[in-house]
Amino acid sequence: MEKRLCHIIATLQVVLLLLLVSCSSSRQDEVRVVSVTILPQQYIAEQIAGEHFDIHCVVPQNSNPEAYDPTPEQLINVEKSVAYLRVGMIGFEMAWMERLSRNNPDMKIYDTSRGVELIEGVHTHTHGNGVVHATHMVDPHIWCSPDNVCIMARNICDAFVELDPEGGDYYQANYERFVRRVEQVDSLMTDILRPCKGTAFAIYHPSLTYLARDYDLQQLCIEEAGKESSALSMRTIVDRARDAGVEVVFVQKEFNTRQVETFAQEIGAEVVTINPLNYDWENEMIHIAHAIARE
Ligand SMILES: [Zn+2]
Fold first, then answer.
1. What is the pLDDT of residues 145-155, one digit of tens each?
2. Prediction pTM value
3. How far is the CA of 211 from the centre of ligand 1 (A)?
4. Angle of helix 146-163 relative to helix 39-49, nearest 10 degrees?
5. pLDDT tens digit string along 95-133?
6. Please, what are the domains in the chain?
7. What is the 3 CA–ligand 1 centroid distance (Å)?
8. What's the gap in Å between 47 CA and the centre of ligand 1?
9. What's the CA-to-centroid distance between 148 and ligand 1, angstroms?
10. CB 42 within 8 A of CB 60
11. Do 92 and 68 form a contact (C-beta atoms < 8 A)?
12. pLDDT tens digits for 136-174?
């Protein structure tokens, strides 16, 4: 009797073991996770990865990627990632990348700004505790430019090929299809902005530096050192905006708009909300172009 019981227990143990093995092997078949910082990057990466990787975006909608502190849940997701595609020099990455990579030493880190002609300038952001950080000297908003997005897409494609060499042809084909779409966005924007060469627009936070460079526009920034401008600076900006004939002032949901309203009233310009962190990158770029062209 006791022997039979032992036998049954042994059999159960084997069954349990088999179950465990099959569970863990099916977990291994799960799609691998790759993390990115912002939603436009998630969009680009998904166009190239297809179903082969699960793209996880760290900074959620309506949060500022220059001052974002991740939740414990976010950190767990990053720790599951086989790779991280960084924008390049954006505040969140400057503050957190080292720690993320220490917590997950096997995670490969790719810089999607590699090869982008970066614009230097003091770019600052303020954390919730009031501490102001300067982001090196490089303007981090590289994704607001179809030319740059083509370079980012190339870097992202190369990363997927390295992570999964067998899927190389698949990623390359997806990359080529995506770049053709980006080129269409670019030619549409070129048409929309052709009559506006040299036009100046104002913006609270300078997210459109690369877009202004690519399409021969002038960006006037309202914030100062990541905060509202002083009354004195405000006078200077108002004068410059009047001289330049600014008709539109852009604002992002992530930033305080009180000063923007005052500014716009003073110069008689229209306030337009844009979302450079939109997942729908293509439509956002076209929306911004239309707004600059006052169409
Ligand atoms: Zn910014």
1. 999 999 999 99
2. 0.85
3. 13
4. 50
5. 999 999 999 999 999 999 999 999 987 555 555 555 555
6. 30-186 (3.40.50.1980), 189-293 (3.40.50.1980)
7. 72
8. 24
9. 16
10. no
11. yes
12. 578 999 999 999 999 999 999 999 999 999 999 999 999
